[in-house]
Amino acid sequence: MTTRVEAPAGPFRTRGHGALLRARAALDAGPLLRNGHVLTLSSLLAATLGAAFWVLATHWYDTATVGRSYAALSAVMLLSGVGQLNLADVLVRFVPAAGRHAGRLALRCYAASALCSTVVAVAFLLLVPAVAPGLGYLREPVPAVCFVAGAVGYSIFVLQDGALTGLRRTGWVLGENALFAAVKAGLLALCGILALGAGILASWVGALLVALVVTNVFLFRHAVPEHRRDRCDAAGPQRLLGYAAADYVGALFRLAAYNVVPLLVLNQLGDEGSAYFSLAWVIAYTLFLVAYNMGSSLIVEAARAPERLEEHARKVLRHNTVLLAAAALLLVVSAPWLLALFGPQYAEHGTALLRLLALSALPNLLLGVAIDVARARRRLAWVVALQAALCVLVLGLSGWLLPLLGVTGVGVAWLAAECLLGLPLLLTLPRWLPRERSTR
Q: Read out DSSP for 368-382?
C-alpha cells in the first residue's frame, strides 16, 4: 500500500515548486501508464531501428529483392501469429495471477506455439506455388530453413514479451527490441558484404535467435523466481483453455487484417508495389502499436484490480488520444520527407498511403480499448465480432481498391474500416464504458 505525501502549504510553496510537483506526479502515473509508456517506447525504438534496417536494405539490395523479402517476412509473421495460438495475450492476462505456476505456464505456451508454428510454416512452403508464387525462392534450402526458424522463433519472441509484460518487466521488452535491432543491422551488413541473395531474411532470423537466448535467460532465472516469491499464494490460472480458444479466433481475424494485405499487394502490384507499401506500413504501424501496448498494460492491471477497469480504460483513452493525434499529425506533415529517406520513388508512391494509415490509427485506438475491455470482462463473443468485422472490411475494401488506386487503396481501406467500426463505438461509449460503477 502506498501513502500519498502532500507538499506542505504556506509561503514557501512557490508557484515553481508546485509546477515541479505536478510534473513529478505526471511521471509517477502508476503501473498502468508507466508500463504502457515503456511498451510504446519499445515499439517506437523497434520501428525506428526497423526503418533503419530497411534503409540499409534498400541501399544493399534492389527494389525487387526488398519487396520479396518484406512479403516473406510478412508471411513469417502471419504464420507465426497462427502458430502462437494467441498465447501471448493469454500470458498477459493470466501470468499476473499465476504465482508459482508462472514458469510452467510460459514453458507450456512455448512448446505448444513452437509445434504449431513449425507445422503451419512447413505447410505454407509446400503450398507456395499455389498461394504465393512470388515467394517461390523460399523453397530453396537456405531460405526454407530460415523461413521455418523465423516463424518458430518469432512466435517465442512474442510469447516472451507477453510473459514479461504480465510480470511487469516491460523494461526488458525495450531492451530485447534494442538488442534484436542492433544484431539485425550487423548481420545485414555482413550478408550484404557476402552478397547473399536471402541476406535480409537470414539476418532477421539470426538476430531473432540471439534476442531469444538472452531474454529467456533473464526471464526464467530472475523474473519468474521473483514473481513466485512475491505471489506465492496465487491459485494459478483458472478457466484458461476456454478463454484461450475463444480469444485465438479473434486474434486470427486481426492477424489476417494485418498480414494478408502485403500478400494481396504482392500478388496484384508485384515486387515494386510491395516495396512501396511495405515501408509506409512499417512507419504507420508504430501508431497501431501504441494502442496495442497500452491495451496490454490495461489487461495486466485489470487482472490485478478488476474493480478499476472502467477507470483505467478511460484513462488510456484520454491519454492515448492526445498522444496519437499529435503523432498522426506529425506523420501527415512529414510523410514525403520520411519516405524520401528510402529513395525518391518511395516518397512518390507511398506518401498518400502513409498519411491515410496514420489517420486510421485514431479510430483504431477506440476499437482497441473496446476489445481489451471486452477481454478483461471475458465477453469473448464481442472480442471475436469486432476483430472479424475489421478483417472483413480491410481485406474486402483492399481487394476492391488495389486495382483502382494502387497502394493508396490500402490506406483508404484501413481508414474507412476503422471509421465504420469506431463511430458506433464512440456513440455508445457510455453504455460499454460507464464513468462510474457501483461497488456494492
A: HHHHHHHHHTT-HHH
Compute the distance between CA of residue 297 and CA of residue 31 in angstroms, rounded to an integer.
8
Across the range 306-320, mean pLDDT stands at 89
Q: Cell numbers 510452467 label which residue?
A: 104
* Rounded Cα–Cα distance for residues 96 and 165 (Å): 9
Residues 294 and 316: beta-carbon distance below 8 Å? yes
Residue 139 confidence (pLDDT): 87
Q: Burial code of 248-268, b = ≥16 C-beta within 10 A, e = fewer?
A: bebbbbbbbbbbbbbbbbbbb
Beta-carbon-side half-sphere exposure of residue 90 (alpha carbons within 13 Å): 30
Q: Are 399 and 410 in contact (CB under 8 A)?
A: no
- Tell me, what amino acid is at 103? G
In sequence order, what DSSP letters do the residues of 159-170 get, joined into one string?
A: HHHHHHHHTT-H
Rounded to two decimals, the pTM is 0.70
Q: How many angstroms separate the CA atoms of 26 and 42, rounded?
A: 20
CB count in 10 Å sphere of residue 93: 24
Backbone phi and psi for residue 98, each to the nearest 5 degrees, phi listed first: -80, -25
Task: Look at the alpha carbons of 265, 57, 78, 43 in this order and tell me if their dihedral is positive or negative.
Answer: negative
Mark out the alpha helices in 2-96 (DSSP H runs): 15-27, 30-60, 63-84, 87-94
Contacts of 286 (CB under 8 A, 6+ apart): 43, 44, 47
Highest mean pLDDT range out of 26-30, 154-158, 253-257, 283-287? 154-158
What is the per-residue pLDDT for 5? 32
**Grid coordinates standing for 146?**
530460415
Cα 82 from Cα 233, distance rounded (Å):
34
Cβ burial, residue 45 (10 Å; 0-12/13-18/19+): middle
Give the cell for residue 382.
464481442
| DSSP, residue by residue, 148-197 | HHHHHHHHHHHHHHHHHHHTT-HHHHHHHHHHHHHHHHHHHHHHHHHT-T
pLDDT exceeds 70 at position 230: no
The C-alpha angle 289, 294, 299, rounded to 5 degrees, equals: 120
Tell me if 397 sits within 8 A of 417, measured CB to CB.
yes
As a whole number of angstroms, the distance between CA 3 and CA 193 comes to 58
Taking only Cα atoms into account, the Rg of the chain, rounded to an integer number of angstroms, comes to 22
**Residues 165-186 pLDDT 10s:** 888 888 888 888 889 988 988 8
Between 294 and 42, the more confident residue is 294
| pLDDT tier, 27 (very low <50, low <70, confident <90, very high otherwise) | very low
- What is the band of 36 on the pLDDT scale with cuts at 50, 70, 90? confident
Joined together, the cell numbers standing for residue 330 give 506529425
Give pLDDT, residue 38.
83
